[in-house]
Design a protein that fits this description.
The protein contains six helices and seven strands. The protein is an alpha/beta fold. The chain binds S-adenosylmethionine (SAM). This is Methyltransferase domain-containing protein.
Amino acid sequence: MVGSIIPSSRFTIRKMLAPVDWDRCEVFVEYGPGVGTFCQPVLDRLRRDGTLIVIDTNPLYIDYLRKHFRDSRFHAVHGSAADVVEIVKAHGHDHADYVLSGLPFSTLPDGVGPAIAQATHEVIRPGGAFLVYQFSARARDFMAKHFRRIDSGFELWNVLPCQLFWGWKDADD
Ligand SMILES: C[S@@+](CC[C@H](N)C(=O)[O-])C[C@H]1O[C@@H](n2cnc3c(N)ncnc32)[C@H](O)[C@@H]1O
């Protein structure tokens, strides 16, 4: 369920977040933040009136993150990414602008990956994107069922080389 205990490198973080239009980002969601490698870089770029919601199934990570990130824009939720629509609504928003995922899609229990991909497509506003980093390119298969336009990249400067995908939600999707 964890996939890797090695945090993403600063090269992966920078490259993954580069296409985000931060001026137009009110709600940013992250799945599987673990110890929060991406959280500070996202908070550094996020608008003052923005919201960062991170969702992890491991309560120990959530406890740690709540203690570590004392920022009024930061919300750590103990739950599953499959419930993102309800979680975003519970925080007073209809949509997310961007969703970031470091989830190990291919090793999640049966049915969970497809459910997460579908809920993610539902929660993202038109013009927003699903940002995925993975050691395996299989994550793209889960995304492709819902996102017609997917950009891809590769980051060698990670402890394990990492595949990067950006699934864009177009207005007519
Ligand atoms: C590979 S770790 C992520 C590491 C971190 N994002 C980084 O870049 O260093 C995967 C995380 O996904 C979490 N996870 C697994 N299944 C999940 C689900 N259905 N919803 C949310 N988080 C989940 C695990 O608890 C773990 O923290």
